[in-house]
Task: structure prediction
Amino acid sequence: METTARADVWVSSVRLYKNRSIASRECKAGHVRINGAKAKPSQPVNIGDRVEALTEGGLRTVVVTRIIVKRVGASVAVQCYEDKTPPPPPKEEIAIMPRRDRGAGRPTKRDRRALDKLRGRQ
Result:
């Protein structure tokens, strides 16, 4: 059993990034941190390390529980880390602005006043 793995290999193996070349590029860009420090692609990852990766879905924070060096199935990959990512904040409800029907023409003075009142402009 492996005791360490390269940062780019481990991050791609547990599916934080799609493939190793993307993981390597993200490490070089400084988007992967191990125990708070920027990680180079060849930096070793040990069990118990805290890995932070900036992904398309936002910042992911995981703690290494098992070292793997080959890409495995998603169900096995999830067992190799403990996810410490905070839940995303609740999405705010955005009021949907009413839209005029296409081809309805310009709003009349009465329509415009009603829209201004609805928007709180008066």
Summary: The first strand starts at residue 4 and ends at 6. The two ends are 72 Å apart (CA to CA). The CA atoms of residues 1 and 41 lie 21 Å apart. The chain has a mean pLDDT of 90.
